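>> received
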Amino acid sequence: MSDIKKTLFMKQKLMRKVIYSLIPIVIASVYFFGLRALVLMAWVTAIGIAAEWFFEKRYNKPISEAVIVTCMLYTLTLPPSTPFWIAGVGIVFGVIFGKEVFGGFGRNVFNPALVARSFVYICFPEPLTIHWVKSAAGFPGGFTVWLTESIDAISQSTPMLIFRETTTMESFTRLFLGNTPGSLGETSALLIIFAAIYLIYTKSAAWQTMAGVFMGYLFMSSSLYIFGAPTVPNPLFGLLSGGLLFGAVFMATDPISSPMTKEGRWIYGILIGIVTVIIRGYALFAGGIMFAILIGNTFAPLIDEGVKLYKSNRKKVTA
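>> returned
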């Protein structure tokens, strides 16, 4: 049995640590939104593994455990009521066009989970931006229901969407704990912070990237907020909502699509943080972090080259 597993899956300790960090968030998604969250994740993971196996089998390559992480992250960015067929189409697109077309694991330019999420966000905007459900409160929460109650009014939508429509801000306590409407894994700031601590402690994610995102975000958000920009919320509210924490901790730190140099990670993170605020405040998209990271992925190789060139020239000057 162990031989079969070795043949089918490429062992990746780093990816397993990311999976471990996501387990509490997955459990919380079931508690907040119902058992459908777990079934949706199982469905997406099965489809994603099958899509990668279809391409890798031609070269007799094992399936990377990274595809499981991709499937989990992608699912956790989806609304709880996302149709199964849309979720399946999205992960197939993400695996193929975000990873396999570049040559498979280790060669992708963009984060495959974000490629999948962006694709379904653009192609199926209604189920991805309008159909939300209430979060459960109290025990046993969503552990005994398929899906929590649907939301129809904008006054009960996600915190960031409510702010854009009414300038009303959700309670910081609710944002911190996670019992607010939103995507499956992006609502609980508390659990995401715990995951970040674990990933940094185990050296499974670059803290420079996370810190850079928060620095860039706080600088840009605070500047616009102080100058009275009506579309930019209180920086703390923005930090705890809209998936910023989830994106900074899990998506921006993807080791393949982010810079390799430490200095480059700072620049990359700051760029993502600044662009997130601009997109949130002045574009049609309430979140912003998703597209900001993809833009950062585009410039990651150039940032690394710039850092290396700067170091090389500096050595020549001091030599």
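>> Confidence is low (pLDDT under 50) at residues 1-5.
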